[in-house]
Amino acid sequence: MVTMKKAIFGGSFDPPHIGHLEIIKQALTSLDIDTLIVVPAFLNPFKSKSFAPADLRLKWLSAMTQELNDVEVSSFEVEQNRPVTSIETVKHFMNKGDTIYFIIGADNLESLPQWKNFDELDKLVTWVVATRNGITIPDKYVTLDVNQDISATALREQVNEAYLDKSIAKEIITYYKDIKHG
Fold it and tell me: What pTM value is reported for the model?
């Protein structure tokens, strides 16, 4: 059996933006991995709703990453049609002997202990934390230095083309303006 080194980067991606793309690019260059799996959530287990439908966010991510080698955008969580926990996603992609890197933003560090089956998840993965908002990242984590100060929440409030990948910018702008005025 061939073992692989995989990185998993999950999230709502509501909408996907250049900060997400920067995390993906940094992971590809700084982690020793065979593949990076981007997994948009059907619905984040800690949230009650998403703004853009899961299949649309999946489409945007696929378009945004199509030029990148060793990146797979997975429909796994979207296909479940329900909130999926990180432990479930990791077990889905993990084969015996694989090394799994799990990429999160620094803003998730505080809530990590509340994640379902955190202790088990912690044993299965190597945590990779993308810098965000000046949050200090403890030495026990691998750090991805990402210089993008943008959040999907802020983008939904004030859609700004400068923070969107050109391949999907117009569609995202139209979508979020329509739901804001719909």
Answer: 0.95
3-state SS assignment for residue 122: helix
Distances in Å between the alpha carbon of 145 and those of 6, 16, 86, 136? Answer: 19, 19, 23, 12
55, 63 Cβ separation under 8 angstroms: no
The predicted structure's pLDDT at residue 182: 60
**Residue 155 is encoded by which pair of tokens?**
């983008």
pLDDT above 70 (res 106) = yes
Tell me the three state secondary structure of residue 115.
coil
Asked if 5 and 32 count as a contact pair (C-beta separation under 8 A), the reply is: yes
Does position 110 have pLDDT exceeding 90, yes or no? yes
Please state, in angstroms and as integers, the Cα–Cα distance from residue 179 to each residue in 29, 50, 157, following that order: 36, 12, 11
Distances in Å between the Cα of 87 and the Cα atoms of 8, 98, 120, 121, 148 are 11, 15, 8, 6, 28
List phi, psi (to 5°) of 175. Answer: -60, -50
Give the span between the Cα atoms of 180 and 147, in whole angstroms. Answer: 29
Instruction: Report the distance separating Cα 36 and Cα 10, nearest Å.
Output: 11
Q: Could you tell me if 42 and 54 are in contact, meaning their C-beta atoms sit under 8 angstroms apart?
A: yes
18: left (phi over 0), alpha (psi -120 to 50) or beta: alpha
